[in-house]
Specification:
The structure is a homohexamer. Chain A has nine helices and eleven strands. By secondary structure, chain A is of the alpha/beta class. The first copy, chain A, has two domains: 110 residues, Rossmann fold, CATH 3.40.50.12500; 104 residues, Rossmann fold, CATH 3.40.50.12500. In chain A, strand 6, helix 5 and strand 7 form a beta-alpha-beta unit. In chain A, helix 1 packs across helix 9 and helix 4 crosses helix 9. The termini of chain A are far apart. Chains C and D meet through helix 4 and helix 9 of C and helix 4 and helix 9 of D.
């Protein structure tokens, strides 16, 4: 049995969500897999806009670099926008998988089409962008918003009911075979929703964690011959210099 | 740790290849996973044409039905054409994964593009069809034939060298980040080729086995609400009646 | 006037449907064209699932081989899933045309978009797959199911009314210029439906028969330089050896 | 046997080419089909630019209107740019088919991909546009120019040799199953080139003529419910008023 | 400040609409830009069909040639079908821009998706064709017809209200970020509609005029190395010989 | 004449490049347009990887916010990866345009296809992503790297010669009508290269500046009804809180 260390990064700074994510990831890993979930030291409390996502990325990348130092064999980026994924692949030695890509690819093994159910309507464009990027634009038959803010998933007593109904409705209106949950904050709802609606429901956190575990088992990591080679070293101005040389230290 | 039984079906009737496939699949499964690889009782010795593939499918489906009877939790179809995959999903309770789809989706986590290296040039059209079907047409940057017949992979002393060179050349000409091996008969070459060319190389047999193991772990299987529900029961004439009623036995 | 022999294969084993198909095909051929319609000796009574289609294909291919022996100049595969089409092109000398491809290409000459009206909802995915494969995904504006089983088309007294209404509704909801009938069992309804709804309605059986007649007239057949060359001869285990060598007879 | 009148319009004003087109079309029609080929009374001597094509269209449409008056059952537009096709479908009662669309759709029945071999390089963009429009962009694997002007096809003693070599080269470089001749002026070369290169070669003139003959036989014509209904009647200024009211004659 | 002359061609022969177009174009140009709007001497009173468009093109091209003679630095084709655009680019020295392409590209800077609101339903196919041609098929989320004839935009007292409502409804049903007006005859409604619906509304006439002004400022014009080089000179029969040699004048 | 203030943001921190960018932008603006070019206070010295781009974005967004405060009417993001564009559109009142999108859309007015010539090969994937995102994937016929680092464009005496040759070669190999320069650092080379190769060459800095100027003139800005509305206000941890509330200041 292979022994490995997977680091799961929740790109927002809400540690209660990070704890839920860690529990959902741990529930599916093999005995030999050690798992740690963290939030970055800087960034937004939740990610609900392109702006939030942009500001979350430097913190995610700093955690990747810390994970490299700590010997992580692979990484999960646990926000459905997969923020910083390409950059993370450049700086990580092992595989890096986003929960949106893992969930969508996983859904593609379960039938012809899937629906995504997510939080706010303003994030649906990004979800469709990702489906397009991952080649799953045709498989992704619809992206549906519950209009529940990310952090309200933890506090709104009606959240589970609203998300469950949205999943059920999406199955029917899209003619889908499965539903993908479009937010890491929904990870703990997955089993119950699936039971309630009688159809496969995919939580990207668990899916991505197993994807990373499989890639490490297979000895596979990001190809490093071209676009995803380590980035050129260079000076960075201001406070953002985790990877390059600090400015003024060239000698 | 989850306990499960995965049945791997080699769609051709060459049992020496089936043994290799079983070894490659077993090398990556978790301790709790029982694995069996079989060939159908009828079908072609190798699959190198649409005609071969068409004649292999009924035997594959018969093995799915036997697996259902024997309590298999999931199935791998171990031929790069993924023969009978849609039909198998209709008749299996658990997930069914083809090695082409598993390999291609796995490759998509390793960078922007991959190359496929396969046996005969006449099968490259089918490989491209599958990439298109799985949404990975853009990610699949080239399909390259070695012009080695499937069964010669086991006997031709130059086979590994030729396949390795084709993989290396494909990386360069396609600008790819990874290589997918386009035949189950290449499964045992994977690690060595990867070491030789210095880039990720994906064997679909191992990738599909871990994909099924992950799906079973996640409690996921084919959506059964629509296209992939169990097929309507009906009479079948002639010798092909594994699932429906035998003709003349209606009452 | 060119003299030719076209063999029409109804992939299911319901000979009453075969007789209807033959009549519809004969109604449109030129005086010099001899036409025969058959069902395979083995296979499902109707094709309503991927499983049915997979089990129908070997019988279709056996009929192609018999037609080759009997001097057929071209073949029609008369089931809207076009089962076995690629394999048939490998083993036939003359052209082979499926009724879905013929109907869809024919519809493309009549305007910008067409609707497909078919039997069961579970087959609509396959129809969309074919539209995509034939390049007519954008032209195919909708695939609509009547939820009438294939064989009920012959027996249900309301079948024609239901299909006609579905065609009329599809024209409006899809904004289509024409309707394609999505089942060979609807061939004899074509003229009446067209008259009732006041729009072009395409029966694939007649369309495919004329397509084959035209290809033979033009001296055209499947290109045989690559993917569709005759398949490599090899041993086949079990009962499925129409084309290769019977196992144990190599000497 | 159905009796019909097909009018073939050569959009350029070179009547020697019109005669060749008529001979090639007549060679394939059924005994009951009457066929006439004409050139418009105004327009360019050959069509080798978007400008030429734009100026050819009014003459083509005038011939459609004359054909309507003369009882034509269907029309062929015999230039590989299919000039005026959409407009012709609005004003014709029977079907209208362009030679590019007929040739490309015909090629799609012969394998997975085809190459187009045409006259001047500057026209290849238009050929690719049409392949895209007809859904055959993937099937069309290459468009190759011989750099022979259209009218030189009739006079250049090397024309056949150059076109034949281009066809042979295209098959290899594109991995195609068939070749489409990209100019009506190549119609008479088709059989010889096919024999020389050992692969299917498609002349759009013959293909389009049989397509129209088949559509008329099937009782099919352009859908007239929407985009292709007869155009609204209105005043036309200047000399181009074949269909609308002449200006100043409204009372 | 750059000094230039932009010629705006309204492809229909309704000069009252030409005057409106000129006013809308002038309202946005820089001080150094001289602008003239004209209608061709021949052609339809409005463009509402493929037939109208085909008959409008020769007149548009004649105006391009007159503009070349008069020293125009660039051209706008002010009909939402962009009639004759490719041919105009062959014969013009400076840039030529259609109002549909300018409006759609402009809309793409304002968000993820736009809706088109146009006159008659029969023209929506052409609008979708253009969106596809310009690469903006995904960005173009819907094309909606008001069923107001082109010339009624000037006379129908309810026109503005109907168009405004259609724009508002399209925003909601398409989830669009902006609206493109699909007819040059709507140019003067743009500002008011935008104010009424509270979203960006794009008039192609103003957008195309500024696009041409920018291209001239940047020193950019149509690439002349291939498809858009000046067309080969040749004889034209009949009355359409603005560019080639008049027949019978070869010496 | 409209008076406006356009802020051009060079996302890297190399102010000598910012000065060049400002000069190129100023050269094309109208007399009433005030223009300022800046670099962010933090970020990488050049952008040559996904990692660099991710770390550049927070500084770009801070400059957008400063520009909002200073009354900027519109913004240009002057790096060919268009970093932070979606987020910038959320937080800016006026239009925001990236130089890659402006250059590519501009190229689409000049013919059928364009080539991109850029710095390092590892950035070509991002350029292709953007072409896809902007709908110009087919128009973008090739992306070619000179393998000159971004900052070496200012210092390498052979840079202009190498870039010019790459542009010339790209025109031929891609059959393109125009060339897009794939780095803001090439802005000052544009006119000379165009003269040298005899084809249109597009500098995105000038193109984007005129695009913003046109949008402001037309009164157009980002649609604010959905995805690009101002982001929800929320706490940001650490040092990245330009837009939301600083953590601990909620009362």
């Amino acid at each position: 049995m292979i022994s490995m260390f997977i680091k799961v990064i929740n790109p927002n700074t809400t540690w209660s969500m990070t704890a839920t994510i860690e529990a959902c990831a741990r529930a599916v890993t093999a005995p030999g897999t050690r798992l740690e979930a963290v939030s970055p030291r800087m960034g937004p409390a939740s990610i609900e806009s392109h702006y939030d996502e942009a500001l979350a990325v430097p913190g995610v990348l700093a955690e990747i670099l810390r994970g490299e130092r700590d010997g992580a064999d692979g990484f999960v980026i646990a926000c459905f926008g997969d923020p910083g994924l390409d950059a993370a692949r450049e700086i990580a030695t092992g595989p890096v998988v986003g929960i949106a890509e893992a969930a969508m690819h996983t859904a593609s093994f379960l039938g012809r089409g899937f629906s995504v159910v997510t939080t706010l309507g303003r994030t649906t464009g990004r979800a469709r962008d990702l489906a397009e990027r991952y080649g799953l634009r045709d498989a992704c038959r619809g992206v549906h918003a519950c209009e529940i803010p990310v952090l309200a998933l933890e506090t709104d007593p009606d959240a589970r009911k609203i998300v469950t109904e949205a999943c059920f409705d999406a199955l029917g209106s899209d003619g889908s075979d499965a539903v993908v949950l479009g937010c890491a904050g929904m990870a703990d709802l997955c089993a119950q929703i699936s039971a309630d609606i009688g159809a496969p429901v995919i939580d990207g956190v668990a899916a991505a964690t197993l994807t990373v575990q499989s890639l490490v088992t297979l000895g596979l990591t990001t190809g490093k011959r071209g676009e995803f080679a380590a980035p050129p070293v260079k000076p960075y101005s201001g406070l953002l210099a985790p990877f390059g040389r600090a400015e003024g230290t060239r000698g």
